[in-house]
Amino acid sequence: MPLNEPVPDFSLPATGGQPFQLSALRGAPLVLYFYPRDATPGCTDEGLQFKALHQEFCALHCTILGISRDTLASHERFRAKLELPFHLLSDSAELACGLFAVIKDKTLYGKPVRGIERSTFLIDAQGVLRQEWRKVAVPHHAQAVLDAVKSLPSLS
Fold first, then answer.
1. Catalytic residues, which ones?
2. What CATH number corresponds to the domain at position 73?
């Protein structure tokens, strides 16, 4: 997905029983953060960082959504355990993962595996991809994303 280009519309199942449709969120900024797996230490830390800053994102009318290949049931448990104030999207078919090219070959315990490379994407109110972070290191990442949202041009 090239920077400064419109993101194609897509839909995925979301926690809370409501399907997600990208085009339905036009008019305000959107943060999509891709993470490897529910209930793992790095993914838990990342979710909690976005949770801690959620009110500041809301003040900017920015929606945060987490995406992984986990099932919707797993997402519901993970979201409830962490009391996340935002929804998680299930991408078991790798639709959004493919669109944003976040599936990478990795090594886990010495064995090759395919998995999500922790990545975040900032989409502006017009649906244009404005910034991306790949190979994300969790510490201070949510704050960096919030700072980028603050730097987006105003909707006025």
1. 43
2. 3.40.30.10
